[in-house]
Design a protein that fits this description.
CATH class: Alpha Beta
Number of domains: 1
Number of helices: 7
Shape: globular
Strand order of the largest sheet: 3-2-1-4-5-9-8
Oligomer: single chain
CATH topology: Rossmann fold
CATH architecture: 3-Layer(aba) Sandwich
Helix content: 25-40%
Number of strands: 9
Strand content: 25-35%
Structural class: alpha/beta
CATH superfamily: Vaccinia Virus protein VP39
Length: 198
């Protein structure tokens, strides 16, 4: 697998310009926000990109956002745009922040990891989840690999099958709340929402 962060780093400005801001994610983000307690609103945004529209939505909802992205140019855009939030340049595959969050989001980021890396990241989700934390991520609709495109360059995607995601979630202490395959109201995204049971 090619580390796709190099592509996002090279094309950060173009990606940011073209990144949709239609609000298609809001039905899921609003559910996360509505479930957070006023005193427990720390959110970890894994693969935060340039911070829009997801981090902006969360910040506008009075969440304490920590964004992580391996692409330095993306993190720089976030810091310029939202200097009051916390932005960390790091690969999610080796993340160990030593703290927990009330919600974790990996929207259109986690699926750039190959199958083995995806399996290994579930303990990282667990280690950063506070009791009762929500986990929101997107995947492919079924097991396999796909090559998309970013600014004319090949962009890797992968997915496990739904049964394996459910098993990984269960093994790491998460209960599935919602699983929608190719949601037509969300640009065809396959979306998972789970809650830490501990």
């Amino acid at each position: 697998m090619t580390d796709v962060w190099h592509l996002y780093d090279a094309h950060a400005a173009a990606f940011d310009r073209d990144r949709g801001r239609s609000g298609m994610e809001e039905s899921y983000l609003s559910r996360v926000v509505e479930e957070l307690q006023p005193e427990r609103r720390a959110v970890l945004d894994l693969g935060c990109g340039a911070g829009e529209p997801i981090a902006r939505y969360l910040l506008d909802a009075a969440c304490e956002v920590t964004g992580v992205d391996a692409a330095p140019a993306m993190v720089a855009l976030c810091r310029a745009r939202f200097p009051h939030a916390t932005w960390i340049e790091h690969d999610m595959r080796t993340l160990a922040l030593g703290r927990s969050f009330d919600a974790l989001i990996a929207w259109d980021s986690f699926f750039h990891l190959d199958a083995g890396a995806q399996r290994r990241i579930f303990p990282i989700f667990r280690d950063h989840a506070a009791p009762g934390a929500l986990l929101l991520f997107t995947s492919g609709p079924g097991a396999g690999e796909a090559i998309g495109e970013l600014c004319g360059e090949p962009l890797y995607h992968a997915s496990l099958d739904a049964a394996e995601y459910r098993e990984l979630l269960a093994d790491n202490g998460f209960d599935v709340l919602t699983h929608r395959v190719e949601d037509p109201d969300c640009g065809g995204h396959t979306v998972w929402l789970a809650r830490a049971r501990y």
